[in-house]
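Input record, target 12 of the design panel.
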């Protein structure tokens, strides 16, 4: 199994773990799920930001204002970042988002993540109604369906 797949599976397991623990976990919990998968401690900030935007509290972590997963401005962060590509988003950011969505598509092909890249398409909403949300669907995104 490649490292990307292992990372994505660890993230899904961590979200399930957090849900079972009333969405309150520690930084040590996070590190235990990603043991051997993180090369640079600064990468944990992305994981913490992702979890915090999903209403999972991490003891000892204060969410930042520059959370790339923040949904507070309307469209979900991934689609906003893709849209910003024409307005100066770095190629590295664009490539990361595409890689992430392709990886999520490999784990959860029924949702078509590789095709819509985070936009709320009719096909994606239909898949959510048919299969329910995956472990990576953010609650803030799901509220917009209703």
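The sequence produced for target 12 reads:
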């Amino acid at each position: 199994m490649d490292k990307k797949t292992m990372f994505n599976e660890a993230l899904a397991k961590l979200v399930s773990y957090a849900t079972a623990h009333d969405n309150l976990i520690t930084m040590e919990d996070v590190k235990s799920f990603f043991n051997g998968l993180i090369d640079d401690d600064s990468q944990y900030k992305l994981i913490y930001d992702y979890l915090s935007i999903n209403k999972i509290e991490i003891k000892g972590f204060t969410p930042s204002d520059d959370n790339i997963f923040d949904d507070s401005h309307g469209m979900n962060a991934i689609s906003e970042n893709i849209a910003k590509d024409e307005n100066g988003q770095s190629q590295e950011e664009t490539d990361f988002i595409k890689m992430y969505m392709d990886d999520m598509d490999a784990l959860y092909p029924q949702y078509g993540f590789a095709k819509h890249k985070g936009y709320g398409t009719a096909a994606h909403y239909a898949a959510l109604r048919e299969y329910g949300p995956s472990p990576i669907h953010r609650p803030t995104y799901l509220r917009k369906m209703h």
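The CA atoms of residues 110 and 130 lie 9 Å apart.
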